[in-house]
Amino acid sequence: MKKSIVAAGMAAILLGILLMPRNDAGFHAGEPAFAACSAVEIMNNCCFKFRKCLDDDSLDVSPEAREQRAVGEFRRCLRSDLGCSAEMTEMKSKDARQIRAICR
C-alpha cells in the first residue's frame, strides 16, 4: 500500500513539473544591453550630447567643470537613453579622454 501511495505521489509531482508553464521567450541575459552599448547609437546619441555639453559656452564655469558635466551627461545617456548596464556604463565612461576616443 505504501508503494502505491509513493508511486502516485511521484507521478503527480512529475506531471506537475511537466505541465509547469515556461515563459522564457525573448529572454537573453545581458545581450540587449551589450548590443546597445556597442552599437552606433552611442555615436549618434551620446557622443552628440557629450560634445554639445563640452562646447556649451553659455555656462560660465571652468573647463574642468564643463568636462565633468559632459562626462555626467554621457553616462546619463548611456544609462537612461540606451539602457546600458551599470558595468558597461562604467567601462565606457571612465574619463573625458576615453569618451573622446570613443566619439572620434
Short description:
The chain has helices at 2-18, 31-37, 41-54, 63-81, 86-92, 96-102.
The portion of residues forming beta strands comes to: under 5%
What class do helices, strands and sheet pairing give?
Answer: mainly alpha
Spans of at least 5 consecutive residues whose pLDDT stays below 50 are: none
Residue share in helices? 55-70%
Distance between the termini: 77 Å
Q: How many individual β-strands?
A: 0
Number of helical stretches of at least 4 residues: 6
Largest sheet: none
Coarse morphology: rod-shaped
Mean pLDDT across residues: 79
Gyration radius, in Å: 25 Å
H/E series: HHHHHH
Structure, described:
With 104 residues, the chain is mainly alpha-helical. It is built from six helices and no strands. The chain has helices at residues 2-18, 31-37, 41-54, 63-81, 86-92, 96-102. α3 runs antiparallel to α4. The model has no long low-confidence stretch (mean pLDDT 79).
List keywords for this structure.
104 residues; 6 helices; rod-shaped
